[in-house]
């Protein structure tokens, strides 16, 4: 569950504004969940994010939420409610950690300002891969990856941050420097952009807006071919 905080950094000022209280370098926040049947206490330290759930009526600890052996529908619903709170806290109280490419940081700042979305790190085995998606239909409009250069450009060494975007004119774009066939996605509908400055910020943002618009629509085809790992 706490994979969602990988590549994020705790922001104390934002946390204080959100309602966290600091005591001896432990930041805590409590709220009701599950229609008031339980309350959840989240604790954040320099190295850890943890939470506990208590029965609202009795005050007793509800440890089942942390027990992997408990797989009933009720405890599953409580876990889902906890995860929703953790996502809200991540959005309000955490910043994305620094990127290896300066252009990536600039682009993600523009995305946050224009679309209000933050990167979501969904894969435990691919902690350097994240998605941007619509809040309404939950469709991805961008996938940010930190990958070896040779996944895009054979023989090139080092790491690069790249973003996969959807486009309706893929073939026409592939002759442009800095644009590649989509890595790990349907190459008919998606492209990969290297965020190393080869393309200007304006060019990247224009292509990102196209992807945002295309994925806003309902689509019959399923363009995503991600496996569980990028290795």
Description of the molecule:
With 231 residues, this protein is α+β, with helices and mostly antiparallel strands. The chain has helices at residues 12-18, 73-93, 102-115, 170-173, 201-216; strands at residues 8-10, 21-23, 26-33, 38-44, 49-55, 94-96, 129-133, 140-148, 159-166, 179-181, 190-194. The chain has a five-stranded antiparallel beta sheet with strand order 7-8-9-11-10. A four-stranded antiparallel beta sheet has the order 2-3-4-5. Strands 1-6 form a two-stranded antiparallel ribbon. The protein is elongated. The two termini are 22 Å apart.
Q: What ranges have pLDDT less than 50 throughout 5 or more consecutive residues?
A: 219-225, 227-231
Q: Strands of the biggest beta sheet: in what spatial order?
A: 7-8-9-11-10
Alpha-carbon distance between the two ends = 22 Å
Derived from helix and strand composition plus strand pairing, the structural class reads alpha+beta
What portion of residues is helical? 25-40%
Order of helices and strands: EHEEEEHEHEEEHEEH
Main beta sheet = 5 strands, antiparallel
DSSP strand (E) fraction?
Answer: 25-35%
Shape: elongated
Determine the mean pLDDT: 89
Radius of gyration: 20 Å
Number of continuous helical runs: 5
Number of strands: 11
């Amino acid at each position: 569950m706490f994979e969602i905080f990988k590549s994020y950094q705790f922001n104390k000022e934002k946390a204080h504004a959100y309602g966290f209280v600091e005591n001896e370098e432990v930041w805590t926040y409590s709220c009701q969940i599950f229609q008031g049947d339980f309350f959840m206490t989240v604790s954040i330290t320099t190295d850890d994010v943890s939470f506990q759930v208590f029965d609202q009526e009795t005050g007793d600890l509800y440890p089942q939420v942390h027990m992997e052996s408990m797989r009933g529908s009720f405890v599953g619903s409580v876990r889902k409610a906890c995860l929703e709170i953790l996502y809200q806290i991540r959005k309000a109280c955490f910043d994305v950690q620094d990127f290896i490419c300066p252009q990536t940081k600039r682009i993600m700042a523009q995305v946050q300002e224009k679309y209000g979305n933050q990167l979501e790190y969904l894969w435990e085995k691919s902690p350097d891969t994240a998605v941007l998606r619509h809040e309404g239909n939950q469709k991805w409009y961008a996938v940010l990856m930190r990958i070896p250069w040779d996944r895009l450009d054979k023989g090139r060494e080092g790491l690069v941050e790249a973003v996969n975007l959807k486009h309706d004119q893929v073939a026409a774009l592939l002759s442009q420097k800095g644009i590649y066939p989509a890595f790990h996605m349907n190459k008919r509908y998606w492209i990969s952009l290297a965020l190393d400055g080869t393309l200007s910020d304006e060019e990247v943002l224009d292509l990102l807006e196209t992807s945002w618009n295309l994925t806003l629509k309902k689509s019959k085809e399923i363009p995503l071919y991600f496996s569980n790992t990028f290795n």
